[in-house]
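Case study B.
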Amino acid sequence: MMTGSAANEYVFECPQCEEQFEVNDGMRDALLERGCPVCTASVSPTAFSPVSTR
Amino acid sequence: MSLDQQTNLSSDDVDALLSRHETGVLSLAKADEPYAIPISYGYDTVGGRFYLRLVSTPESEKRAFLTSSPDARLVVQESGEGVYRSVIATGTLERVSTDDLTPERIVQYGQAKRPLFEIWADTKRDLDIQLFELVPESVSGREVRVDLDEDAK
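Model:
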């Protein structure tokens, strides 16, 4: 089962609605599989960047 | 046409009906004012929660009703071949911010389909799309069967 308790390691930026928020590994996997929860756009690995580089 | 039988749906039947549909009518209340809109939803049978994605503009009537966790009632219905079924869920509509997202919630919103009436005229970056959850305080369903053959007599 996926959990949301792990530390956030990435910043997600939706390519369509431009929504941004920090995510952990479990959330990243869910976004890649299910798309942006806000606008439903498909999500590719390029939508994620490490938190430390921003 | 006459009423032949009216029964309450079991919780399993309620879950099944809510799972095989993805649209309903959401009614909100603010003081004495009612407001009702067609919406799409995702339904989590395990948690018994509805996941909704609503689009509004700052000036819209919808926004005015969404600002303060309004009391809500969601009606989902189906009919065909002499059978009418409906489910009514009542509870409070709670805003979900992106800070509140979890893997489980992302999966649920991914299952919340977007029907034709939610194909938006503006580009997505120009819209204010908000996420909500409806955690029902009560859910009830009923089934009505009517005798269609009686009309033919």
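Residues 2-152 of chain B form a domain with the Pnp Oxidase; Chain A fold (CATH 2.30.110.10). The remaining cases will be described in the next quarterly update.
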